[in-house]
Amino acid sequence: MSEQPKNHLDTFPNPSPKRDFTIRIDIPEFTCLCPKTGQPDFAVLKLEYVPDERCVELKSLKLYIAAYRDLGAFHEAVTNTILDDLVALTAPRFMRLTGEFNVRGGIYTTVIAEHMQTDWQPPVNVTLP
């Protein structure tokens, strides 16, 4: 099993850096290997973020995620590692990665990891009548 993904993540400039807006990306075919058995683990990854100056480029994200296919990793570790890599790359105002892992041994696992810039305040939700 390889130790880490080898593909490079790319970014592009945020087209509206003065505005808070949310980007949501669903990754329905994530796979990695169980570090104990070597059997495949399957998950849906849900990425949500409020960009600052940079946005993640989707083709590079797809290749980066695919590189986990042969990596042995616990659900908690892989979710946090992916979040750390994306935060280091894009320095978002806010980012959340949710990993919804398929059943293993009769147990479903969901791991939610978040990052928030210390000086960023989330916008107030607007409720329309």
Q: What layout of secondary structure does this protein have?
A:
Elements: E1 11-13, E2 23-33, E3 40-50, E4 54-56, H1 58-66, H2 75-90, E5 94-104, E6 107-116
Antiparallel strand pairs: 1-4, 2-3, 3-5, 5-6
Main structural class: alpha+beta
Helix content: 10-25%
Please indicate the percent range of residues in DSSP E strands (runs of 2 or more). 35-45%
Radius of gyration: 16 Å
Q: Which stretches of 5+ consecutive residues score pLDDT under 50? A: none
Number of strands: 6
CATH topology: GTP Cyclohydrolase I, domain 2
- CATH H level: which superfamily? GTP cyclohydrolase I, C-terminal domain/NADPH-dependent 7-cyano-7-deazaguanine reductase, N-terminal domain
Tally the helices.
Answer: 2
Gap between N and C termini, in Å?
54 Å
Tell me the overall shape: globular
| Number of domain units | 1
Spatial sequence of strands, sheet with the most strands:
2-3-5-6
H/E element sequence: EEEEHHEE
Average of per-residue pLDDT values = 93
CATH class: Alpha Beta
Note the main sheet.
4 strands, antiparallel
> Can you name the CATH architecture?
2-Layer Sandwich
